[in-house]
Amino acid sequence: MVNRHFDFNDNRPPRPRKSPYDYIKKLFKSLHIETVDFKNARFKYVNNNGAFPDIDSVANLNVSLKDWLIDSLSAQDTTRFYLLKDVNLNLNNYTYATTDSMYHIKVDQLHFNASSGKVNIKQFALAPRYKENQFAKVAGYAKDRYSIQLNNISLDGLNLPAYLQKQELIANEMHIADGGISVYNDNSFPKQEKIKTGRFPHQLLQQLKMQLTLKKIRLSNIDVSYAEFDRNSKHIGKIVFGKTSGVITNATNEAAYKATNPMMEADLVSYVMGQGKLAINFKFYLNSPLGAFDYKGAITNLDGRRLNQITKPLGMIQVNKGLIRKLAFDIKANQNVAKGVVDFRFNDLSVALLKKEEGRERLVKKGLLSILANALVLYSDNPNAEGKFTSAKINFERKPTASFFNFIWKTLYQGVKYSVGVTPQKEAEIRAQVAKFEKMKDDRDERRLRRQMRKEQKENPH
Q1: Residues of 42-56 as b/e, b for ≥16 C-beta within 10 angstroms?
Q2: Cβ count within 10 A of residue 174
Q3: Which of 39, 63, 396, 420 is the most buried (most CB within 10 A)?
Q4: Which residues contact 49 (CB under 8 A, 6 or more apart)?
Q5: SS3 readout for 41-103
Q6: What integer pLDDT is reported at residue 351 of this predicted model?
């Protein structure tokens, strides 16, 4: 199939311009074929609407055309699609490599029914071609490795004529259920410092070549994880958001041109490390030249020790104990800056600072610095024993190379640090205290060395 769309055909119904009945009426009253089946067919689609042809092809395609009719009325029958009552498509075991050759995209058991506009996909996968410990080596730099497997995907109300004529994906609702998305990064390799300004999710959506409009996306039971190998600790840190569910509304790249204040919204619920409940709402302003977005929500009832899986390898901090009662946030941001407030309520917080020693696999505690941190800097409770609550005001500037999720993480991390007492002033005090104790340690070591030398001289005068 070769497609070249012309604007004067916009909004034309999926029916013949001239009735085929005019060609046969002198010979037949009607022509009717109940079913036409194509089994295990190969199909190639050539899109000639761009500067260069865009070619795609599939194999193992089954097509069933139902109730094809030519008579005096069929060409104007609004229940028919190009004279057909229905079209069924089935695609099995479809695989192709991405343009960078780093992944295979796999689709298993896709079914489409034209009369209902329903698409069902039993399984979709983005499968890396290389293992975690090989991916960055092949790429040549520290690159995020994505692994996606979604087991049930459905689309309702798909506009097939819009897709065939203009490659526009328009549907009423998408449902994605039961699967996982994992990201892995090996930062022992050099980073490729790319400017990521203008590459937030809603900004990328507006940059898509094809028109996309999904009125509603429902998510249920999706596990999301991020893992990173740290060059300093030589360990992998990982955070998991389990059983993620929610609704995304108005996912479109059309509204920005047709509405005064279009907005895409996401309401999500997840469980951090399988325990703490995270409820979060995103608002994305689709026509904002600065990529404006808001996010508001809270994590509740999380044992702080659950975070050691990520804080120890990536932050060199071990949470000895501590209960996160509620970490609430309300942030307004754009591609340059985030402003808002973080309210962090916790009890009985105690941490240990860690370091990596040569020849030892496990991280070891910095005993003196850990005591200083807990005794002089960190709040063990918020609110404290007198009922005073510390709320953190946020004003965080994004680095041009920071990604969308890195920006969110660093913004919230600033609020957490301020809430537990680690303000810029306190950090300066910590550095001064560390320098003082290091000097005391060096002086003590020097005195010990001198005593040892004097002792050796007395024992061996010659």
Answers
A1: eeeeebeeeeeeeee
A2: 21
A3: 420
A4: 3, 4, 5, 166, 167
A5: EEEEEEECCCCCCEEEEEEEEEEEEEEEEECCCHHHCCCCECCECEEEEEECCEEEECCCCCE
A6: 82
DSSP 8-state class, residue 176: E
The per-residue pLDDT for 409 is 85
Can you tell me which residue has the tokens 């810029």?
Answer: 424
pLDDT at 372: 57
Report whether pLDDT(236) > 60: yes
Find the DSSP H helices in 352-420: 367-372, 404-419
Task: Please give the single-letter amino acid code of residue 305.
Answer: R
E-assigned strand segments in 86-168? 86-91, 94-97, 103-113, 118-128, 145-156
Q: How far apart are the first and last CA of the chain?
A: 100
Per-residue pLDDT for 285 more than 90?
yes
Strand bridging mode 169-186 / 212-229: parallel
pTM for this structure? 0.81
Give CA 245 to chain center in angstroms.
14
Q: Name which of 28-32, 61-65, 100-104, 424-428 the model is least confident about.
A: 424-428
Beta-strand relationship, 337-355 and 391-397? antiparallel
Radius of gyration of the chain (CA): 30
Strand runs (DSSP E) across 187-292, as ranges? 212-229, 236-252, 263-272, 276-285
